[in-house]
Specification:
- The chain is α/β, with parallel strands linked by helices.
- About 40% of the residues lie in helices and about 15% in strands.
- The protein has an 8-stranded mixed beta sheet with strand order 1-2-4-3-5-6-7-8, sandwiched between helices.
- The relative contact order is 0.15.
- The N terminus is likely disordered.
């Protein structure tokens, strides 16, 4: 597997004169060894403390942070990484769990010699992941930014058991198709498994993007991660005061629920999500919430300035603490 990752890296040679921020994702940034047969891809930019750690949401890797990474790196050191099986990273032990994701991030920060304190930024499902890391390592996490978070309090993204079962079935099919080497980005039947990138991307990034999605490890990681119950977050991490006096921002998109959901039900789910996210911010004595207008679930893509503002505010608050 390491050989396959290195071959993909060597095949993807970025043009240093390309000003497109996505060009950096044509190849791995830094493959950090966790063991003799496992690496995680780490992309650190900028200087200063605290270090911001960007944790992408379900089915995503560091590419998702392209709209905000460079801007944040003007303020402090900012590190995005690919979880096990995602992006350029090696597969992890199956099935993935909150414990394995937390252990991987701990090992990565140690191996890369990235010292605390950290500000953790988690989008969607990754909000659960960074909350789990915070609960496991409270002394090193100085602040949090949670972006349209999934949560055990009100899991609106799992509101339809039938749809959930269908998604699991589709993801199992994706894994089988990937293992058979049969995934086709132009086939409607594979549209849930693999897709083409943005029109403005370079041909090399398009090729890399498709190659990552064709890997069985990627399909397996998607299936594993979506099945991690949000409720597996420890009760201690969900109790009032769980965030202490850390500066915390919670961002809620105003259009993040699928349009396939009937309008009446969507309105109720949005209200529940908004209420839950406000409560989530209240787990800190310094928590703040913002409803982000004109944004879908992928806030960093739709309204990147909202993410930049929230992270910078938390970084400054951490720096001002005694």
């Amino acid at each position: 597997m390491l050989g396959a990752l290195l071959a993909l890296a060597l095949a993807a040679v970025a043009n240093p004169n390309d000003r497109n921020p996505e060009a950096a994702y044509e190849r791995p940034a830094r493959l950090v060894p966790l063991s003799k047969d496992r690496v995680l891809n780490l992309d650190c930019r900028g200087t200063g403390a605290p270090t911001v750690v960007l944790e992408p949401g379900w089915s995503s890797w560091s590419l998702d942070w392209a709209p905000v990474h460079d801007a944040l790196a003007q303020v402090t050191r900012v590190c995005a990484y690919d979880r096990a099986g995602m992006g350029f990273s090696s597969p992890g032990k199956r099935p993935a769990s909150l414990a394995s994701i937390t252990a991987d991030l701990e090992a990565l920060l140690s191996a890369a010699e990235i010292a605390p304190p950290y500000v953790l930024v988690g989008g969607s499902k990754a909000a659960v992941f960074v909350r789990a890391f915070t609960a496991a390592h409270p002394d090193v996490v100085a602040g949090l930014v949670l972006i349209d978070p999934a949560s055990p309090e009100v899991d609106v993204f799992k509101s339809d058991p039938i749809a959930d079962a269908q998604i699991y079935g589709m993801l199992r099919r994706c894994l089988a198709r990937a293992e058979a080497g049969a995934l086709d980005p132009d086939a409607a039947a594979d549209s849930f498994c693999i897709g083409r990138g943005e029109a403005q991307w370079s041909a090399q990034l398009q090729e890399t993007y498709l190659a990552i999605q064709r890997r069985p490890a990627y399909a397996a990681a998607r299936l594993d991660e979506i099945q991690i119950p949000n409720a597996s977050l420890s009760l201690k991490a969900r109790q009032p005061g769980a965030f202490g006096d850390r500066p915390v921002w919670v961002l809620t998109s105003d259009q993040g629920l699928g349009r396939a959901i009937p309008a009446e039900k969507r309105a109720k789910l949005q209200a529940a999500k908004l209420s839950a996210n406000k409560d989530l911010a209240r787990l800190s004595t310094r928590g703040r919430h913002r409803l982000v207008a004109d944004s879908g679930h992928m806030v960093a893509q739709d309204q990147p300035q909202a993410v930049i503002d929230a992270v910078v505010d938390v970084v400054r608050a951490v720096r001002q603490r005694p």
